[in-house]
């Protein structure tokens, strides 16, 4: 029948290598451009609203200047010009609200779409990827990294409208007072150079901060998921030290980022204000000499003041852009990871059963498989299982029993040979059809924080109550479910820990058979069950195995006796 070799520790040490985020962020920015293009209508509206906002803002100093000068001359009433200034301010306020609404709406939409995209891609990636990827790294890409991206996208309409305002102000300043305008705007080249240097210096540090935050998320996730193990071994202090170490690493890297910001940001804040000081000094002198009206000075001063915030905001926008760049690299790294297990181009269908033709025949032909570059753990394995019969695979840990289950469900693909169900190579089936045809009760029972009904109907959400109850009865779970506070509507605790081990396993068995699979796999289904309850699980297993092709995985022969 071939052999399953003892892989020893090689099985444990094999993992898919997870590459560090790519240093070239161009692919990440391409991803963002695609997302922005999909939402171009909303973003364009946001920018147009921002342009109207800029027009309203820019008109206020001009109207103020005209009101002051004509009021001093006594040619027109100040009330008229005051009304115009108030009206322009109200219009600018309305467009400010609209600008922020469009900015936040589109940025949240892009964040949501990318989160859906990365989550969908993660669910379709091969199991080997998840075996080698830390949970915290995945969580950070789907949460904090996308939040960094959202914070940058929300600034796009705001920054572009600020840019429109800056251009309009610069044109107005130069056209009215060229010399004074050049003096006021002289800090701009220095601001641009500093912003560029700030961007180059902060980028690698931001990358490291986000990597360290992902590592911290991993430790937190493992601590919560493994709290029973931690408490069981009295290892609270050990795990707390791990958390402190990761937090300390974040603190150290964040301190480096803070030092970089402390070097650049004060200068980026100060330089635009120097232009205002120059305007007050030189402009006041020109007013005294009659070279400039009071209204012109007020207007000029107001315009320079309006320039200060966008220029100061430039540093924040650069910082947000760097964080978004890093986030895009990390998100794109996941989205660019191809799944090694995919549907065939043209999928075949399994033959239907009939009164004269049973289904569930299973055939392993000369199967060879190894994890990575290690020696084959499955070497020339052959097995033929007739429809409706049961076969037990018994062996020590590392002998390859669970690997056979992984190959049968295409968690991994065979490297040589074939696996057939009812004469059809499983690689010719769609993954959905294959995994509907094979029901698995895993060694480690995992139940979701959901109702009992939804846990049983997990693989078949449209299952009727009758179908779910039938599966529960076959699995010996119906009676105890009715005793729960809300029966099938009872919400289970995380991973189902509010139930006993035997109860969890019986719900898992019901979940495996609710879609009436052709082949049932029981992967050491009683290993985590209290010995006093093991006979109940065996009884449930015997019931669901009747007339169904079944593979029983066990460490010891007594489990299948």
Describe the protein's architecture and organization.
- With 561 residues, the protein is α/β, with parallel strands linked by helices.
- It has two domains: 22-335, ABC transporter transmembrane region fold; 362-560, P-loop containing nucleotide triphosphate hydrolases (Rossmann fold, 3-Layer(aba) Sandwich), CATH 3.40.50.
- The chain has helices at residues 10-13, 26-38, 40-73, 78-124, 127-132, 135-142, 144-153, 155-176, 178-185, 188-225, 227-232, 236-288, 294-335, 401-408, 431-437, 452-456, 465-474, 478-482, 501-513, 531-545, and strands spanning 3-4, 362-369, 378-385, 390-394, 416-421, 424-425, 438-441, 519-523, 549-554.
- The strands form two sheets. The chain has a five-stranded antiparallel β-sheet, covered by helices on one side. Strands 4-9-8-7 form a four-stranded parallel β-sheet.
- Strand 2 and strand 3 form a beta hairpin.
- Helix 6 crosses helix 10 (188-225) and helix 12 runs antiparallel to helix 13.
- Mean pLDDT is 80; it is low at 3-23.
